Amino acid sequence: MTEKSTPTLRQALAAVDNMENLSNSASEKVQGLCRLALHALETPSGQSDTEAIAQALRVILHTTAEVADCIGWEAEKVGVFAAEDAGQQRRSVARCCVGRADSVPGEGVGHG
Questions:
Q1: Is residue 16 part of a domain?
Q2: Is residue 109 part of a domain?
Q3: pTM over 0.90
Q4: Given CA atoms 33, 35, 38, 42 in this order, what sign does their dihedral have?
């Protein structure tokens, strides 16, 4: 979409729907990981397994950064961030997850 074109109502509604689905999916994932980590902290064996808790936190950081990027992309498609440089948006998201997404096994920066 160019800056001169105006999104249709249907395109805007589709983008909002996509953003809602992305945020709901990420929220469920993050809530589940938080419940597991909190439960682990309530047991002696869980308290001693700091690597598992650290991994859960890395996945949470990666998930939230990825969703922020996807939501920003959806909004940009319908011109919501037309006044802001797209590169600036990506740099903002990257600052949130520098060095964190690379440490999530099976996931990587630049996969989307």
A1: yes
A2: no
A3: no
A4: negative
- Decide if 2 is inside a domain: no
User: Rounded to an integer, what distance in angstroms lies between the CA atom of residue 22 and that of residue 33?
Assistant: 17
pLDDT along the chain (112 residues), means of 10: 68 89 93 92 90 92 92 84 60 54 42 36
Q: Is residue 54 part of a domain?
A: yes
For the chain, how many structural domains are there in total? 1
CA 95/CA 99 separation, integer angstroms: 9
- Full residue range of the structural domain in which residue 82 is found: 9-103
For 49, the token pair is 């397994």
